[in-house]
C-alpha cells in the first residue's frame, strides 16, 4: 500500500468540489475579477483546465520515457489562457470536466512501475511522477480559493494543508525569507510545530490553514500574528511583512523516487 490511492481519492474529491463551484457560476460571474490580479474567474478556470492537459503531458513522459514538456512555453501557456478566459460558463464547465476525466483516466492507467519515473515541470528540480498528484491537488485547491466563490482557506482539508506546509518548508527560500521563525498552533492555542532558522525577519504564529493562506498569498494575514520580543499579543495581520517568495521550486529536491507509504 502506498500514498497513491490516498492522493487519488483526495484529487477526486477536490475536483468534484471545484466542478460543483464552477457549475454554480454564470457568464457574468466568470467575467468578474478573481482574487488573482488581472485575472477574471474565467482566467482561473481556463488555467485549471489547461493545467490538466499539462499534467497529461508529464504522465505521458513518465509512461513512455519520451520527454514531453509540461507546456510548450510560458508564452504559449499565457496565450492559451487568454484565448479561453472569455468562454461562456457552459463551455468552461464542459472543458474543466473533460480535462479532469482524461487526467483521471491517465492516472488510473499508468503502470505501477512508471510512478517512479522522473519528470520535470517548467522549472527544476525533476521529480518522480507520483508527485504530479500532489502538484495537481495544489492547483485545484489554491485556484478554487482564487475564484472567490464561497470556497476559502478554512475549507481546505487538513491533509492538504499539512502537506503543503511541509513542502513549503522543504522548499523554503532562506536567502529571501521575510520571517525568522514560524510557529503553528491548533485551535486550542497549543503549539503543534515550530520552524526555526528560516532567515531574517520577525517570528510569526498562527493556525496551519491561516498560515498556509498567508504564505501562498491567499490572505492578508488573517489569523497570523507577529511574535515581537517582549510582547504577548499583536492583532491579527498587524505589522506582518510580505510573505516570502512562494513555490520557488515546484517540488522538494529530496523526494523518494518510489511512491512512499505516506506523504509527508
Automatic annotation (TrEMBL):
Originating organism: Nonomuraea jabiensis
One GO molecular-function entry: metal ion binding
Spans annotated as Disordered: 224-264
UniProt xrefs under Gene3D superfamilies: 3.30.1050.20, dinb family like domain
Pfam families to which the protein is assigned, alphabetical: MDMPI_N
NCBIfam families tied to this protein: maleylpyruvate isomerase family mycothiol-dependent enzyme (TIGR03083)
Keyword Isomerase: yes
Keywords, in A-Z order: Isomerase, Pyruvate
EC number(s) reported in the record: 5.2.1.4
Segments forming domain Mycothiol-dependent maleylpyruvate isomerase metal-binding: 12-148
EC top class named in words: isomerase
InterPro entries in the cross-refs: DinB/YfiT-like, Maleyloyr_isom, MDMPI_metal-binding, SCP2_sterol-bd_dom_sf
Name this protein carries in UniProt: Maleylpyruvate isomerase
